[in-house]
Amino acid sequence: MAFVSDTLLIVIHPLKSKPLDIMKKIEIYTTNTCPFCFAAKDLLAKKDLDFTEVDLSGDAAGRAALKERLNGLTSVPQIFIGDTHIGGCDDLYALEKSGELNTLLGE
Ligand SMILES: N[C@@H](CCC(=O)N[C@@H](CS)C(=O)NCC(=O)O)C(=O)O
């Protein structure tokens, strides 16, 4: 929306007013039949946040690599903000409820 001034953008979406190199990347590991994955993506979409989805459906090697990275955790979704592993769907909603999600994204 090139016609929207920077000032107006700050009013519309405080997180997106941050330069892209400051806004932390959101990465979510999912499978395509997982209701918790849909719920987590739904929250991110409702907050109009861009995220990178890694769909591990049918990807045994990918799931094994994620399990290794997360010291044995096997469930999806698994969500990262920048280099920080924040956990799964419940953890994402808890962070949103407490207001910490915006802090994590914007700091
Ligand atoms: N409390 C977890 C629940 C996640 C969950 O149960 N995911 C299921 C798929 S919908 C799963 O990965 N189950 C297989 C496993 O735990 O290894 C969350 O909020 O993310």
Question: How far is it from the N-terminal to the C-terminal residue, by CA?
Answer: 24 Å
The figure for the number of domains is 1
Percent of residues in beta strands: 15-25%
Q: What is the CATH C level class, in words? A: Alpha Beta
Helix/strand order, N-terminal first? HEHEHEEHH
Task: Please report the total strand number as a whole number.
Answer: 4
Overall geometry comes to: globular
Features of this protein?
43% helix; binds glutathione; alpha+beta; single chain; globular
Structure explained in plain terms:
With 107 residues, this protein is of the alpha+beta class. The chain has a single domain, classed as 3-Layer(aba) Sandwich (Glutaredoxin). It is 43% helix and 16% strand. The protein is built from five helices and four strands, in the order αβαβαββαα. It has helices at residues 6-12, 35-46, 60-69, 89-98, 100-106, and strands at 26-30, 52-55, 78-81, 84-87. A four-stranded mixed beta sheet has the order 2-1-3-4, covered by helices on one side. The longest helix has 12 residues, at 35-46. The radius of gyration is 15 Å and the shape is globular. 19% of the residues are buried. Residues 34-36, 74-77, 88-90 line the site of glutathione.
